[in-house]
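Q: Hi! Curious about what ABC transporter ATP-binding protein looks like structurally. Here's the sequence.
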Amino acid sequence: MSSSRSTTTANEVPPEHSTSREPHRAASATTTSRPAAQVVDAVKVYGSGDTAVRALDGVSVAFPAGRFTAIMGPSGSGKSTLMHCAAGLDTLTSGSALIGDTDLSSLDDRRLTLLRRDRIGFVFQAFNLVPTLTVAENITLPIDLAGGRGDPEWVDALVDVVGLRDRLHHRPAELSGGQQQRVAVARAFAGRPDVVFADEPTGNLDSRSGEEVLGLLGRAVRETERTVVMVTHDPVAAAHADEVVFLADGRLVDRMEAPTPDKVLDRMKAFEVRS
Ligand SMILES: Nc1ncnc2c1ncn2[C@@H]1O[C@H](COP(=O)(O)OP(=O)(O)OP(=O)(O)O)[C@@H](O)[C@H]1O
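A: Let's find out. The predicted structure is below.
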């Protein structure tokens, strides 16, 4: 693990040390093999005895910093379980999950909560916005809950990335589904997290709004040097990623660079043929 860390050269600035404050003006994503998140020999067993389900069966996968990775696989293959364990929302039965250098199993509940708050962003299928707060307040909610000031310039620039400047004082109910998910995306990135985990982020959206949100996630990765890991069952959505990793029966079975919807669909069809 540590041997693959930091491939940046002397004149490159690692993303987390970048002095750029504005997403629009950040340099393009640094190519690096440094993992923002990873799991090693991950095993997750739900239940016990006859009813035990081995949802993850020895998965090792790294999610490189500054990249957009999609997790795909048939229903029940372990996608959500992998994401939840990698993000510290659930614990592994054995193996390890790391955010940067931090092994999540070494943290007590309080420190794990702080790590999730400070270093991870989440986007879920349900937008999970607070209905009584304005768009602006929803975006800065994680920062406000943390009692910090955050980085006002960063948040301000994010508002432009997600195209919500003219909606800042509206409430979620006054927005379309796509706009609400864009608020959720801005909120996920507001605290400059090391990695944003997105679980079926377009599941509740029509295809046009979905495309907008996916384009936004891609832009956020490229323009703000962040890392996104997205679970999806949609080949079109997965094709927005830099790389797709495929799970089947709780195992990592394939990886695909530069995915296209057709290539991803063909790969998924191979699973159906086999089952
Ligand atoms: N809390 C749980 N208790 C028991 N079994 C579970 C639990 N959560 C998931 N499982 C099982 O673990 C396996 C993997 O589930 P998981 O939700 O990770 O798959 P998935 O690939 O995300 O599926 P889908 O695409 O249908 O959402 C499935 O067999 C599922 O039934």
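A: A fun detail: Residues 68-77+109-274 form a domain with the Rossmann fold fold (CATH 3.40.50.300).
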